[in-house]
Every structure is written in structure tokens, then in C-alpha cells.
Amino acid sequence: MWWLSTRRHGGQQPKKADESALSQILSENEDERRDVNAVDSDGRTALLFVSGLGSEPCVKLLAEAGADLDHRDNSGGLTALHMAAGYVKPGVVKLLAGLGADPEVKDDRGLTPLDLAKEILRVTPKGNPMQFGRRLGLESVIRNLEEELFEYAEVQEILEKRGKGKDLEYLVKWKDDSDNEWVKAKFIAEDLVRDFEAGLEYAVAEGVMG
């Protein structure tokens, strides 16, 4: 691929993002410049590759050059956010979200990047020192995606609660009529939580009588 370089290591040639080469290509005149959204046989663009590789500088360069942030490949329907989440690149996840990548795009299995990260975390062994860093990275990915998803969402009503401490969650009803969802307490407005804990109920007035 034109956006990648290779290096020999142990007889293999792992790919890595080449920021300087990419920058040079993107700065060429229009006749020589490559299509920033060109795809390979799996339908993957440069952005998907560098996101999976964890190269924040390359992600930024491609985004500034007009890369499609929500492009889905044809080998699973993965986006750049899916790649960053799946390969445990929390910095790239945060960068893509800040650039405007849609965290709610689903892959061919119906999984959002957040769903994918949670799925991988569930099968990553606990108590294994070799997996400790991976679990921390996945938790960071999940935290970044949750912050992006719930930052602008409006809760109409809290229905139930479960868990304690940092694991405390509330089942919320969204104002946009999306499916009810369990959400960490820190993502819900404090006044709504206080009202729920006080046993207050919400109602919608049908009309003013006098």
C-alpha cells in the first residue's frame, strides 16, 4: 500500500504507518496526488489501516486531506473507529471522535466500536499480568467512546438502577425515543439522579386548564 512502509523483523515484514511519506504524498500537486479514499481488495482505506496501527499523526493528516471518517470496509463493515477500538488504540479513538467520526456506525455483526471493545474486554483474561496492559487499554477505549456517545444525549427519565460505586448504572429513557439503555452514573445529569433517588416521578402535561 502506498501509505505504508515495511521493516524486517525476525524474518517477517510488519507494516507501519510512515508519517513523513504520507505527508509528502498528500502535499504533491493534484496530478500526482493519490486518492485519499482509495481502497484495497478488502475495501479498506488508508485511514482504516493507520487507525489500526495507532498512528495519530497519520490519522490527522488523512482527516485534514478529506478522508471519509466513517467509511466501512467490505470485510466486516469496519470503520476507522472499529479498527482503533479493536486494536486497542485509545489515543486514536479519542482523536477520531474529536474529528467527528460517528461512534454509532455498526459493523456487519451489528456492533458499534463500543460494542466491539466491550466484547474484546469480556474475553481478555483477568489476573493475567501479560494481559494487564491490554485490559487497561480497552478500558480507556471504552471510556473514550462512552464519553463521546453520552456527551450530547438527553435523558428523559431514569427507570432503574444497579451496581454500586464506580459500577453504578441507571436504566435511562432517551428523549429521542431510542431504546432504553444502561448508562454509567457519571454520564447523567446530577439533578436527574437526585430526583430519581428522591422518588420523584416525571409526567408530561397535556394542556393548561386555567
From TrEMBL:
Residues 153-182 form the Chromo domain. Gene3D superfamilies: 2.40.50.40, Ankyrin repeat-containing domain. SUPFAM superfamilies: Ankyrin repeat, Chromo domain-like. Residues 1-20 are annotated as: Disordered. PROSITE patterns: ANK_REP_REGION, ANK_REPEAT, CHROMO_2. SMART domains: ANK, CHROMO. It holds the Pfam family Ank_5. Keywords: ANK repeat, Repeat. It comes from the Eukaryota. ANK repeats lie at residues 42-74, 76-108. Residues 1-10 have a biased composition (Basic residues). This is Chromo domain-containing protein. The lineage of its organism: Eukaryota, Viridiplantae, Streptophyta, Embryophyta, Tracheophyta.
